[in-house]
Amino acid sequence: MLRPLALRDQHARLGARFAPFAGWAMPIQYRGIIEEHEAVRTQAGVFDVSHLGRVWVTGPEAGRQIRSITTYNVLSLEAGSAHYSLYCTEAGGIADDVFIYHVDGERWLIVHNAANAAADYARVRAVAGSAATEATRTTVMLAVQGPRAMDALRQVLGPALGDVALHRCLEVPWQSGRVLFARTGYTGEDGGECISDPATARALWEALLDAGVRATGLGARDTLRLEAALPLHGHDIDETTTPYEAGLGWAVSLQDGEPFSGRDALARLKGAPRTRKLSHLRALERGVPRTGYAVHDPADADGEPVATLTSGAHSPTLRTGIGMAYLPATLAKAGTPLTVDVRGRSLPMQVVPRPFYTRPASGP
Amino acid sequence: MEIPDTLFYTSNHEWIRIEGDEGTIGITDYAQDQLGDIVYVELPEPGSTIVRGESFGVIESVKAVSDLFAPVSGEISERNAAAAEAPEIVNQSPYDAGWLIKVRLADSGEVGDLLDAAAYRSETAGE
Predict the structure, then answer these.
(1) Contact B58 A343 (CB under 8 A)
(2) Per the CB < 8 Å rule, is A286 touching B84?
(3) H helices present in chain A, as ranges
């Protein structure tokens, strides 16, 4: 039985098409994935991402407890700030990628991927005990993204949001409730994410739509994050990949000397030569390179595939196929020609620098 | 959902317009709606033959890959270059600008096995 979102009726009224995702009935699209994708790139869109796992950790030991299970030195986070981090296995594989918010003095929030939410909660409980509480089902999380997102958010939630810098967070009273706002996201655009109780979230959803923000589904969220070259756990990163080959070494802190799961392996891996690297490929001809398709080296056309696409899609912004794959270090250089087997047809692609899409610098 | 009375249909959601011994083939309004934004269309060369019930090409949306199935057998006389260049026209105009191929029918008797608009309408109503 799929879990319905608290805002299910709001989505249904807009003509949402629902599909199962990590046990939830999620809105995949409302009017069309490309139209919604373009709305986020040029205006603003709102996503209901309440399927993401949310766990509060409170108390004087909260920061230390979180530090013991995660790669980034969260003890360096001052109150009101947030950072990307990883949970790793003892072998240094990526068990999940997470966002950690030091909301205020003794209150911390961790946001997990939906597919890993149960295991992640157990991981937090193991170190924090009853100081860890699940908030996934009692709250709603809305992501508002796009060049006009901050304007709309300030208009709705108040001017205080204007002072919240990238990766900072702030709790604001709004209507009869409270909204935890963080200037974070997963699309490559400016904007933020809002966590609140369901009643407040319903009012916020309507107010954002009234402010001209477009309802945007999970389909566009996937093409947006891929254009921004943001990895998706379970596809581009998992327990068999390490932070260093995934280009996520910046989320691993070793210098503070604090112990955390996976530290010994990561300290070894950091200095070891990289045999493969998560790389970015762009199609040179028409065709859609999809997740799971084989990547070949045209210099060895009859040989075994050199990699498999961990993600792949038609990029609505670039109007061409894009994908990610772990390439052998010798083939990972920008400009390297490769081919992808699209159901028997050989689609020429080229290694390009990360990301595929960068938002234009904001105007004067 | 638009289902023109003048066309014939398959259970796989292709349509065919019969004019003499030539047929124009595309996908239905229902099919384009189910697929969502179409981003790639792969069609066979003019001169090649298609066989009723067999795959003759591929149509891809952002989310899905779908085979195209021939409603009749015949030789391809023309393919819609515009649909390959700008696949979104299949979403915008599935029965008109978004047609896919034209064929010279090998056996006009095959047309009798296709669904008429009423039969296709009742098939899609259940889905």
Answers:
(1) yes
(2) yes
(3) 8-13, 33-42, 62-67, 117-128, 149-157, 198-210, 218-227, 263-271
